[in-house]
């Protein structure tokens, strides 16, 4: 009997034995194409020697030293490199162990910023209904995913949620795409005014919504209007790029494609590429200065902040993404995968929408393409898709319908950036097999 506390207590999973390039292998020797990089983590695939060598070298040097006493070379170099590639105005990096920690740090820093600058009455956070920001209590409160929040609702700080920007599901037939973007962005202004002009700390959003929606980018102009509203009311803009950042959408930061700069941005997943648990919260010079000139100390911290070995992994990964050209490769392969998916599934009677950016794609399933009616939740189509794709030797990330009970089941594809042209055919043919078995 296994003593591991699994994700689902009633399921039994194969044991992973090995990873090599774009494949994972179980103990029977069966190969699985890692079509979702786990959960958009394994951007370099498996067994990357440059990264494992960097980790080993760091372990031989010094595995860990607490940040109360020391900084470390890999942490300093990783922070320098992140800032060299970060959106304009972003100036400091706080290294943590994952995405929830990065978001937790972002929320606390935003609140402390207003305490330090004499606006302690600001206490509200606004986020979007279709979002996931992590599973710790602060991040969970911010996320809009109702079923995840429900059991813990008495423990969650109050956060209000506005509409997401989701053209396929949200745009009315009688409005243009840009009018739709402005309409949903303006919900932020209405919510700020409802809560009180000087009551809000931050607006939190994923530039391309990941797990809850299946790679949904906002329409053009949406984030520009959001930035404008935040500036008008002195509200900080926190972008959660835990899933969509680190090159996944074809640019290192997803926000680059929106033409805006956040005040705080969270990254994780692809930063460690699965080789070490690492995340980062990056903030603007303005926010850092407020802390520096105020109490001089960010009232937060975990034992493993700035962990040297995790930082060495992050530095090796980031070097491959940027200097090694893998972000550019992601953009090129992403365009090919997108057109392959459109060709193979664009006319499928039960596929309503194929969307995404870079190597980050969502496929949404519907019972009726005309009306966009989802399959009944009791059918649990996403679970059947997970089972059949896995059976076919393809890992993809499934999710049931969520938004306001209206969205269809979807699968998320987030393959490693090292994939080659032949892998596009492999993904498509395995998907075809699995979909034909389910529908
Ligand atoms: N934000 C987003 C957008 C995510 O997708 C995730 C993880 N799925 C998180 C935060 C939380 O990250 P972690 O699981 O590393 O804590």
From TrEMBL:
<dbReference type="GO" id="GO:0005829">
    <property type="term" value="C:cytosol"/>
</dbReference>
<dbReference type="InterPro" id="IPR005814">
    <property type="entry name" value="Aminotrans_3"/>
</dbReference>
<keyword id="KW-0808">Transferase</keyword>
<dbReference type="InterPro" id="IPR049704">
    <property type="entry name" value="Aminotrans_3_PPA_site"/>
</dbReference>
<dbReference type="Pfam" id="PF00202">
    <property type="entry name" value="Aminotran_3"/>
</dbReference>
<comment type="similarity">
    <text>Belongs to the class-III pyridoxal-phosphate-dependent aminotransferase family.</text>
</comment>
<dbReference type="InterPro" id="IPR015424">
    <property type="entry name" value="PyrdxlP-dep_Trfase"/>
</dbReference>
<keyword id="KW-0032">Aminotransferase</keyword>
<dbReference type="GO" id="GO:0030170">
    <property type="term" value="F:pyridoxal phosphate binding"/>
</dbReference>
<dbReference type="InterPro" id="IPR015421">
    <property type="entry name" value="PyrdxlP-dep_Trfase_major"/>
</dbReference>
<protein>
    <recommendedName>
        <fullName>Adenosylmethionine-8-amino-7-oxononanoate aminotransferase</fullName>
    </recommendedName>
</protein>
<keyword id="KW-0663">Pyridoxal phosphate</keyword>
<dbReference type="GO" id="GO:0008483">
    <property type="term" value="F:transaminase activity"/>
</dbReference>
<dbReference type="InterPro" id="IPR015422">
    <property type="entry name" value="PyrdxlP-dep_Trfase_small"/>
</dbReference>
């Amino acid at each position: 009997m296994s003593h591991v506390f699994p994700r689902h207590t009633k399921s039994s999973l194969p044991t992973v034995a090995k990873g090599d390039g774009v494949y994972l292998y179980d103990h029977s020797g069966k190969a699985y194409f890692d079509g979702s990089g786990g959960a958009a983590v394994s951007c370099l695939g498996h067994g990357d020697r440059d990264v494992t060598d960097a980790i080993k070298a760091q372990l031989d040097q010094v595995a860990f030293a607490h940040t109360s006493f020391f900084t470390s070379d890999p942490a300093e170099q990783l922070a320098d490199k992140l800032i060299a590639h970060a959106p304009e105005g972003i100036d400091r990096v706080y290294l943590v162990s994952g995405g929830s920690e990065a978001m937790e740090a972002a929320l606390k820093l935003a609140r402390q910023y207003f305490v330090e600058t004499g606006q302690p009455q600001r206490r509200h956070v606004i986020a979007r209904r279709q979002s996931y920001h992590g599973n710790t209590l602060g991040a969970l409160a911010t996320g809009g995913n109702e079923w995840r929040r429900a059991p813990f609702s008495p423990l969650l700080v109050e956060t209000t949620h506005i509409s997401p920007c989701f053209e396929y599901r949200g745009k009315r037939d009688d409005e243009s795409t840009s009018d739709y973007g402005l309409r949903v962005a303006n919900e932020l202004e209405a919510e700020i005014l409802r809560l009180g002009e000087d009551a809000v700390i931050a607006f939190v959003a994923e530039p391309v919504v990941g797990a809850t929606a299946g790679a949904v980018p906002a329409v053009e102009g949406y984030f520009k209007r959001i930035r404008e509203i935040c500036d008008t009311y002195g509200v900080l803009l926190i972008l959660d790029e835990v899933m969509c950042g680190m090159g996944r959408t074809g640019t290192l930061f997803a926000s680059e494609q929106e033409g805006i700069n956040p005040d705080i941005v969270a990254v994780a997943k692809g930063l460690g590429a699965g080789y070490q648990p690492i995340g980062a919260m990056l903030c603007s010079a303005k926010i850092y200065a407020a802390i520096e000139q105020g109490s001089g100390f960010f009232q937060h911290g975990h034992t493993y902040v700035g962990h040297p070995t995790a930082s060495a992994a992050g530095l090796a990964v980031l070097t491959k993404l940027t200097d090694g050209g893998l972000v550019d490769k992601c953009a090129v392969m992403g365009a090919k995968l997108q057109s392959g998916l459109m060709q193979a599934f664009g006319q499928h009677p039960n596929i309503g929408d194929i969307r995404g950016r870079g190597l980050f794609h969502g496929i949404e399933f519907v019972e009726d393409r005309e009306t966009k009616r989802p399959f009944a939740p009791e059918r649990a189509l996403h679970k059947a898709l997970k089972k059949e794709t896995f059976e076919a030797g393809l890992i993809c990330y499934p999710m049931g319908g969520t938004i306001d009970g209206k969205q269809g089941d979807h699968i998320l594809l987030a393959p490693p950036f090292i994939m080659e042209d032949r892998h596009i055919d492999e993904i498509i043919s395995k998907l075809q097999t699995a979909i034909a078995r389910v529908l």
